[in-house]
Design goal:
Shape of chain A: globular
Number of helices of chain A: 20
Oligomer: homodimer
Radius of gyration of chain A: 22 Å
Number of strands of chain A: 6
Helix content of chain A: 40-55%
Order of helices and strands of chain A: HHHEEHHHHHHHHHHHEHHHEEEHHH
Distance between the termini of chain A: 58 Å
Largest interface: A-B, 55 and 54 residues
Chain lengths: ~450, ~450
């Protein structure tokens, strides 16, 4: 294939493929929508969303931010929803992306689908195509992209959101290629901001950029014929010598990336690097309800560097605890569950602080990770030592929720129920509505409106 | 200086310096505002602005796009103005930026100044500080940034616009540092799009991103403490090993970059790579009014690669002619002037097409460019050969308008008069209004409103 034609080849696939013929893809997409909605709702009281809305100004429109009152212009709604989805780091992950696809893609798609009154079937098809685009861009850019400092959720997400929105809007191949190019040139987001509100903001900015790219292309703004390939194109600028542009289209939809490797739905609203330890601690708690006052020490063993993202060792609030394996393990052992309330922006309970102080991190380069370890090369071993000299140990290489150990339908429903707790009845019907999404004629009626009500 | 403190050091200078004490800086800034306004007005009928406004939706606000009817929300106005300023490539250039400072900075600043009702003095001070920021970022990133494929007008411009807007809004040092970081992570724009409408769109997107960054910081969104320095910061990601972050602040305001090297105001609304040939052809025309039917051949001699940006050899319209040295030379010889009408989106006059067909390009690596050549290493020699065997030759190394050969006040006024031709009387008063800009109490009344009127 000529590298000059890569944008057009990608656009042809975005426009021409038919993911609704693939039952596993549809099922994965419905699960993705439910998990995305849970992630947005779980964060609906986050103060950042207020601040972002204030910065954008006070426009009214037809697009919703799930769980928040009022409707916004679609471009603004995409930004706020994208931020909220990723605010708790509770949203899905895909290994081909090395980041979070649905935060960007679904936030842009829902806003545009509501404004346009698109059908549920078109919405689902566009989502599958968007995830495919984002994953294949990740494969095509290669590993050095992330390592150079780019936040791939944003840099791949903007282009994927543009592709998804172009598919939803029914743009031609040529206009779809233009939308892709207009998003590629808006791509940005540097990892210097990790650990701050700007990380989830990147997801929102990318959602908005992708939607704007589609609208600019639809309005007739034309850029380069080949914005992805070539010496000055997206792959060269963002991927350098590692980039393999042909991977953006090779194997497209065979199988769909949303099916295999598939989305990782997070079981706990905390840093994914702590999920292995969380699973292990919860298994220890389930095997024997420990008297936590009898615990002398807990050791958590990682491969060297495996805890790099867990930047907090002495948390004081639930928000800080999201990045502390000490707190995650303590809460799992003490409470037997890790829910939204575990990571609220409140001071931590003293007995959890005391237990967290007994947690030690260790590193062991001699342990061989399992072949299905997620991410590759990762493992975590939790060992609890009691005053009577006994110990309990659990090892986890692939956490619950990752594609190798998917959540059951009941666990996914429970995640949604936890996230939507306190919202009116229409919200409790959403799992059923999502199960019938292909039959929905007009997405404008999909998300229940919220007045400025007291939550029930 | 600790490289970790570079963002704060920059923010301290943005907040704390006092450019209004420097008379040459104020004079240069007033000249920049007039030239910027001429560049926007010259492009006011460009169809791209309609398309972009359509893609953004129909919000109304307090910010103007000079020469266009109605007012928009400031974020949208910044985008459309940024696009329009750069649409004809008629706007100012700065060698430290390797791009176009005022298209981004003034488009963001005017929108915010109108919405806030800022004073003319604060507006001018913020502009000088914004140009300083953009130029020093260019020096700090080094040459490889542009060569890697980045469009520096956009990638530096977003951060500079944020700094300028933060200064205008009176943000604290800490909030200014946050605004800078929020813009740095929105920076983008790849050179693959050069030669299309997306190139000027980059200026608009950067203006909007910078203004949004300021507003997010003002609203309390906080990102990394050090977004510019460090391994994952802006300088490392966008500049690589060439970056010298300390140059972002060393020598700040001594003298102000808007004074020296200073802005290049373009004399003709066509590609700057053709300006040397334009000056030469106009000088030939002025020395002897040629009978153009008696011209046998015109040769235009460049250093190798000196015509890389002049990508059109057989133009059919004025828009294409903007990137054709053949047409620029033909029009200069035939008409003795190169105005906005010369490059209209209309078919070319047949006698100019015939003369352009007689123009040949040559390359000569043995010519030694002048020390003040602009850009460095550039020269152009135009030789006209007549049927009677006589020839006329002119050589230009530094074109009119570049800092080495600045336009006279009369020439700057003439550029504005040409650009504002056909607009109501209030627009003809703008040069005087800009000359008194420091006295203006409220920028909201600066730009005359335009109704949907017939132009006079």
């Amino acid at each position: 294939m000529s590298p000059e034609a890569i944008t057009r080849q990608l656009a042809e696939r975005v426009v021409g493929s038919d993911p609704l013929q693939d039952a596993p893809a549809c099922e994965a997409a419905r699960a993705g929508v439910l998990d995305w909605l849970a992630s947005v709702l779980a964060a609906r009281d986050d103060q950042g969303a207020e601040r972002i809305a204030a910065a954008l100004g006070q426009g009214a429109g037809r697009a919703s931010v799930p769980g928040r009152p009022g409707r916004l212009p679609a471009l603004d709604a995409a930004l706020v929803s994208g931020y909220l989805t990723h605010a708790l780091d509770y949203d899905d992950v895909h290994e081909s992306v090395r980041g979070h696809p649905s935060a960007v893609i679904l936030s842009a798609l829902l806003a545009e689908a509501e404004e346009r009154g698109a059908s549920g079937a078109d919405f689902l098809a566009a989502y599958v195509v968007g995830v495919e685009t984002m994953c294949r861009l990740g494969l095509a850019l290669g590993r050095s992209h992330y390592e150079a400092g780019w936040h791939s959720t944003a840099t791949l997400g903007a282009v994927a959101a543009a592709a998804a929105c172009a598919r939803l809007a029914g743009l031609s191949v040529q206009a779809t290629a233009q939308a892709i190019g207009l998003a590629a040139t808006q791509a940005g987001g540097i990892r210097a901001h990790f650990g701050t509100d700007v990380k989830p903001l990147h997801a929102g900015l990318a959602a908005r950029a992708g939607l704007l790219a589609m609208r600019l292309a639809e309005a007739g703004i034309a850029g380069a014929a080949e914005p992805l390939g070539g010496r000055l194109g997206y792959f060269a600028v963002f991927g350098g010598e590692d980039a393999r542009p042909e991977l953006a289209v090779e194997g497209w939809g065979e199988p769909w990336q949303i099916v295999r490797p598939g989305l990782w739905f997070k079981r706990y609203p905390c840093c994914s690097a702590s999920h292995h330890a969380a699973d292990a601690a919860l298994a220890i708690r389930a095997s024997r309800m420990p008297d936590i006052t009898a615990i002398e020490e807990v050791t958590v063993t990682f491969p060297p560097g495996g805890d790099a993202a867990l930047i907090v060792r002495e948390p004081t609030t639930g928000v800080e605890g999201r990045f502390s394996v000490e707190y995650v393990v303590a809460a799992a052992l003490a409470d037997g569950e890790l829910g939204i309330g575990t990571f609220a922006d409140k001071p931590l309970r003293p007995e959890l602080v005391a237990l967290a102080a007994k947690v030690r991190r260790r590193y062991d380069s001699s342990v061989v990770p399992a072949p299905d370890a997620m991410p590759k090369g990762r493992f975590t071993i939790v060992t609890v030592s009691f005053a009577d000299g006994s110990t309990l140990t659990q090892r986890v290489d692939c956490p619950r929720g990752a594609p190798g150990r998917p959540l059951s339908p009941e666990e996914r429903a429970a995640k949604y129920a936890d996230a939507s707790r306190g919202l009116p009845a229409a919200w409790q019907d959403m799992p059923g509505k999502i199960a019938r999404l292909e039959q929905l004629a007009d997405m404008h009626s999909f998300i229940p409106d919220i007045q400025n009500i007291q939550e029930v």
